[in-house]
Each structure stands twice: as structure tokens, then as C-alpha cells.
Design brief:
The complex is a heterodimer of chains A (about 300) and B (about 140).
Chain A (H helix, E strand, L loop, with lengths): L12 H4 L6 H8 L5 E5 L6 H8 L4 E5 L8 E6 L7 H4 L3 E3 L6 H6 L6 E4 L6 H9 L5 E5 L3 H13 L5 E4 L12 E7 L9 E2 L5 E2 L8 H14 L1 E11 L8 H10 L3 E3 L10 E2 L3 E2 L2 E2 L8 E3 L1 H4 L4 E7 L3
Chain B lengths: L1 H4 L9 E5 L3 E6 L12 E4 L1 E7 L2 E4 L1 H7 L7 E3 L2 H10 L1 E3 L7 E7 L2 E9 L3 E4 L3 H5 L7
The chains are: A alpha+beta (about 300), B alpha+beta (about 140).
Chain lengths: ~300, ~140
């Protein structure tokens, strides 16, 4: 599909083609399914042992070959992964490759005190715990009780013992405790997951008219206020929409004394700078330090990641 | 755990146990736990031991995490026997131990607990989800 068949490309995707690099290739990608990935849970099993066990099913695995993501594998199979014994044993977790990038940016260390403000269903929380070798303390929060059930079940199955689960609306999380690091993987429109049918219909489009940017702005301000001085906040979404990404970062920079910093993406991953203008709206020039990951470059869900530090 | 499985107390020095009415939870010890004293907590760590009909049973998650450290009452079975235990709920398995919970492993992967009743009844006590999971076909 060429970009010159623009009439078949629906909004909002069409409006993004001005800033998405190699838009022809991006459009082609929208018509093909994304590959699946899993993370081997090294809290419970070694990578080699897990690969041996999984080889006995009709499963093909290939390493992603990205620094810091040794436990991630591209998977090809007809099996229903959630029905397999190794899944129930907590040996692996189905997880989009790009969902690991916010955790890489967070760079969790052993014995730290970390808040995952919108944690459910727990894929990133589980990966954070794995990187921390199940030490320190993670507070995993979510605002919906049904999602909390899934979060708790996943953490149990993965053998994560360094986590407490809380049930607050993120923007109301109590300001009585301050964290070394915070991950805010905000609720978003999920445009990074969009796929197109041949007649231009969008698959995986979320329904509803929620004012997501307003929610995201409330969340990021509370997340920043929960940081200890010198602490790090990672804001991430799986959407392309600048109104949910750079606009939210710009809001934070206007309202708080926050430092937006660049972070070193693994050299094997292609990332792009944040944008500073969209549809006539200008964003803070520092937004160039944000990182955009597009589906046709990373072969996974599109993501946005910003790294913010609270001055001491 | 020490009396039945030979998992010595010092293994749990890095953890804190916290009890509710029916369940004891296990969470990794951390200096940061006290910083959460003013936060309303819904869940901590993993369930460790449950009161089941008046008897203390280690949870599947606890056994999967610490079972490899067991020095007694841990039994390795093959996949065919595991399949029978899971599908029929009970097998004849004469072992030299007293009635009580035992740890079941297959190829040294810890599956969970079964209940052994002398002289030779082994009853499946795996969670429902684990019982329904696909065990690959052995050739």
C-alpha cells in the first residue's frame, strides 16, 4: 500500500504521516500482524532451561539480540501460550518487546524503592522485579479492582516477592511516601497497536470519549510530586498521538521544576526524537529528548518514552 | 517447612511473613517497607501457607519458589505419572514417608504439593489452572 492511496488511510493515522519517518513502510506495516514476544522469567528459571522446555512444544523462538533484553524472545507458534504448563509455572510472560523500553529507561537497581503507578496487568512490574533480582520494594498500583486481580495473579505466578499492591486512582496516590523511581505507563489510546484492514478499518481501536490527555496530565503531575529529590520518572505510552505524549510532557515542564533528559537507547534499537510541533501546536523544545519508537522500525508496538528527573 | 521439607529457617532470613486469618504471606525484606506505613495495601508478596481444613498447606507459589531447597518429602515423578495424577486426581504411589503434604517435581521442575495418605495414596493438590494446563506429549 503506497502513501498515495491516502484516501484509504483513516484518521488519526493520516495526520501523523507528516512526522512518521518512512511513511510508506509504516503504512505497509499496518496491514500485517505484529510478531509476538515472550520474556523468560529468570526469577524462576534459567534462560537455557526455559528454552529447553519450550522446545518440546510446537514453538519457535529467536533471540531479539538487544542489550539488556537477553530474556526476550520472538515467538512463533500455533499454541495458545496461556494454556501451556510453562506459562502456569511462571517460566515466561507474553510481553511486547517495546514494552520493555520504559523499564530500560527506568534502569531499576537492586534494593531501590520504585512505584509502578499504572501497573496492571503486571508485565512491566514483573520485568522491573526481574532486573532488581526480586530485591528492594516495588509498589504496584492500579485504579481498577478487576485489573488488580490480574496484576496479583500474574505477580504470584511469576514468583515476585518484592512487591506490594495498592488500589488508588493514580492522580490521588497519597503524598505521604516518596520514591526513588517511578514508572508511569499511562492509560492511552493505544495507537501504537493499530492495524488496518484492506478497506481501511482500524483494528484494536479503543472506544469511548475519555479525555485522555487530561487524565495523563493529572497523572504525570502526581507522579512527579511523588518522587524523592534526585529521583527519576519515566512517562510512557503506546500511542503515537502527540497530544498524549509531548503535550503531556510540556504540561509537566510548565507546571513543575522538572528536568527532561535524554537517555541512551540500546544501539540495536532505532529510536526517534520527540517532536516539537503538531497541527499548529508547539511543544517545549526539550521534547526532542523524548524517544519515539515506531512499529516499522522496532517490529513491535509503537511506544513513546520520556525520562524526567526531579532536581535535588 | 523445616520439619516436613528440611528447608532450614535461615533461608527465610531475607523475607518477612505476614499473617491474615487464613493465609500467611511472604514478602522480601526491605528497608523501604516501613516507608509504606501510611499507604493502604491490598496485597503483599506471595501467599506462603494456607489453613486448609485445619491443616497448614504450603501454597503452590511458595513450593515453586523454595521447593528446590527441600531435602526431604520431595519426589520426582515422570510426565506419564504426572498426567495420571492430574487427570485422575489420585494415584497409587507407595513412598516411605508419613502422611502429609509432599512436593512433586518432574525433571527437577517443582510443580506443587500433593497430599500423601499412608500407605500409598497420592492426591493431587495443584491449583485448577495448573491442572488444566497443557503438558506436552512425551514421545
Amino acid at each position: 500500500m503506497k502513501v498515495n492511496n491516502l484516501h484509504l488511510i483513516p484518521e488519526p493515522i493520516k495526520s501523523y504521516l507528516d512526522f512518521i519517518p518512512e511513511p510508506d513502510r509504516y503504512i505497509s506495516y499496518l496491514f500485517a500482524p505484529l510478531p509476538s514476544y515472550i520474556r523468560i522469567n529468570t526469577l524462576k528459571v534459567s534462560i537455557n532451561k526455559a528454552l529447553d522446555i519450550l522446545s518440546r512444544y510446537n514453538i519457535k523462538l529467536s533471540s531479539v539480540n538487544i542489550s539488556g533484553l537477553d530474556s526476550f524472545f520472538k515467538i512463533s507458534t500455533e499454541e495458545q501460550l496461556g494454556n501451556l504448563t510453562p506459562y502456569y509455572m511462571g517460566f515466561f510472560y507474553p510481553q511486547a518487546l517495546s514494552s520493555a523500553f520504559p523499564v530500560l529507561a527506568l534502569s531499576p537497581k537492586c534494593n531501590e524503592f520504585i512505584l509502578d503507578l499504572c501497573a496492571a496487568p503486571g508485565g512491566k512490574t514483573g520485568f522491573i522485579s526481574q532486573v532488581m533480582e526480586d530485591t528492594g520494594l516495588i509498589v504496584a498500583n492500579d485504579r481498577k479492582i478487576s485489573r488488580l486481580t490480574a496484576l496479583t495473579a500474574n505477580l504470584k505466578r511469576l514468583g515476585v516477592t518484592n512487591t506490594m499492591v495498592t488500589f488508588y486512582r493514580g492522580e490521588n496516590f497519597p503524598l505521604s511516601t516518596f520514591f526513588d523511581k517511578i514508572l508511569l505507563d499511562a492509560p492511552c489510546s493505544g495507537e501504537g497497536k493499530y492495524k488496518l484492514s484492506e478497506d481501511g478499518r482500524i483494528y484494536f481501536k479503543k472506544q469511548g470519549n475519555t479525555n485522555l490527555p487530561a487524565i495523563q496530565k493529572g497523572l504525570i503531575l502526581r507522579a512527579f510530586d511523588l518522587l524523592s529529590p534526585g529521583g527519576t520518572l519515566i512517562y510512557s505510552t503506546c500511542t503515537i498521538n502527540p497530544e498524549e505524549n509531548e503535550a503531556v510532557i510540556t504540561h509537566l515542564l510548565k507546571k513543575r521544576n522538572a528536568q527532561l533528559i535524554s537517555w541512551e537507547v540500546p544501539k540495536e534499537v532505532t529510536a526517534f526524537e520527540g517532536i516539537t510541533e503538531f497541527k499548529g501546536k508547539e511543544y517545549d523544545s526539550r521534547c526532542k529528548r523524548c524517544r519515539r519508537f515506531y512499529t516499522h522500525f522496532i517490529d513491535s508496538v509503537g511506544f513513546f518514552v520520556a525520562k524526567v528527573v526531579k532536581p535535588k | 517447612m523445616e520439619e516436613r521439607f528440611g528447608i532450614t529457617k535461615d533461608i527465610f532470613n531475607e523475607y518477612i511473613l505476614s499473617a491474615s486469618s487464613k493465609t500467611v504471606y511472604l514478602i522480601r525484606k526491605s528497608e523501604h517497607i516501613l516507608r509504606c506505613s501510611s499507604i493502604r495495601i491490598q496485597n503483599i508478596g506471595i501467599p506462603f501457607i494456607r489453613d486448609v481444613a485445619g491443616y497448614l498447606k504450603p501454597t503452590t507459589w511458595a513450593v515453586q519458589k523454595f521447593g528446590k531447597l527441600a531435602k526431604k518429602n520431595i519426589f520426582n515423578i515422570d510426565y506419564d505419572l504426572l498426567h495420571t495424577l492430574v487427570t485422575q486426581g489420585e494415584i497409587k504411589y507407595p513412598i516411605n514417608t508419613s502422611s502429609g503434604y509432599v512436593i512433586i517435581a518432574v525433571e527437577s521442575n517443582i510443580w506443587g504439593c500433593a497430599l500423601f495418605l499412608e500407605p500409598d495414596r497420592l492426591l493431587c493438590r495443584f491449583p485448577k489452572a495448573l491442572k488444566k494446563a497443557k503438558i506436552f506429549e512425551t514421545s
